């Protein structure tokens, strides 16, 4: 046994032999703290398209969150959010997962709102301990929305008879091919009010007294990042890299993105596959487009 082995081990730990290590090991020994940046970009939906990466759900982001919080020398996790919202349950599930990992790893979480962090996108932002935005970002929309089409009379026009059989008088509500009923609208409004109350409670829990006194931020309105800071919806303004540099000047930034869906990976190198995949995801793309268009994006 080499009598100098313990001393050499001590020298490696203290950095004295760093220059003598292979390049990759030397870099690993010298690197400082890490800030992991997780990209949460797209609409929030429980049914992500087979091709598009522009969706957020527990299914699509679980691995990215796990990898981000698993880094050695982790100083913080930064959430890069660009989302017009979507499904409330998926918003809550992802936010709860973020809070659980943050508590487990005992690291702070910061969120940066890019073009838009609205509705469910802002729900995600509230999972962070601090929220930042660009002064031109769109932030807020703390509300609940439902939409659809009224196609009553369309089938009759073309001589088509619609047949729906149910057990339970309330099994079918707001059927787009039937006239709208007042009792169905009241039921939907009650559901929306309940979800809105849960959303409001989440924001109050996470933002607390940082919300400006007397400010009514729960009307569903959306504001620029600059105005959102005045209202207390965000803690500061800037760019993501600028905020990380200011808060964690010695940190090494590691970007973590959700993995591509299988068809997206296949179609990346196959023109024919890209064409078929595009046709398969057309409806999904239109629905996503509708979410973004509410904010002029």
Q: What's the total helix number?
A: 12
Total strands: the figure is: 10
Helical residue percent band? 40-55%
What is the radius of gyration computed over CA atoms, rounded to a whole number of angstroms?
Answer: 24 Å
Give the SSE string: HHEEEHEHEHEEHHEHEHEHHH
Residue stretches low in confidence (pLDDT < 50, at least 5 long) are: 8-22, 24-29, 263-277
What form results from the Cα inertia axes?
elongated
What's the arrangement of secondary structure elements?
Layout: H1 5-14, H2 23-30, E1 34-41, E2 43-44, E3 55-56, H3 58-69, E4 74-83, H4 88-105, E5 109-118, H5 120-125, E6 130-133, E7 138-140, H6 154-157, H7 182-207, E8 222-224, H8 225-231, E9 236-237, H9 240-247, E10 252-256, H10 262-267, H11 271-280, H12 282-293
Parallel strand pairs: 1-4, 1-10, 2-3, 4-5, 5-6, 5-7, 6-9
Antiparallel strand pairs: 7-8
Structure in words:
- With 297 residues, this protein is an alpha/beta fold.
- The chain has one domain (22-144, 209-293): Alpha-Beta Complex (2-enoyl-CoA Hydratase, Chain A, domain 1), CATH 3.90.226.10.
- Helix content is 43%, strand content 16%.
- The protein has 12 helices and 10 strands.
- The protein has helices spanning 5-14, 23-30, 58-69, 88-105, 120-125, 154-157, 182-207, 225-231, 240-247, 262-267, 271-280, 282-293; strands spanning 34-41, 43-44, 55-56, 74-83, 109-118, 130-133, 138-140, 222-224, 236-237, 252-256.
- The strands form 2 sheets. Strands 1, 4, 5, 6, 7, 8, 9 and 10 form an 8-stranded mixed sheet that branches.
- Helix 5 (120-125) links the parallel strand 5 and strand 6 (130-133).
- Helix 3 runs parallel beside helix 4.
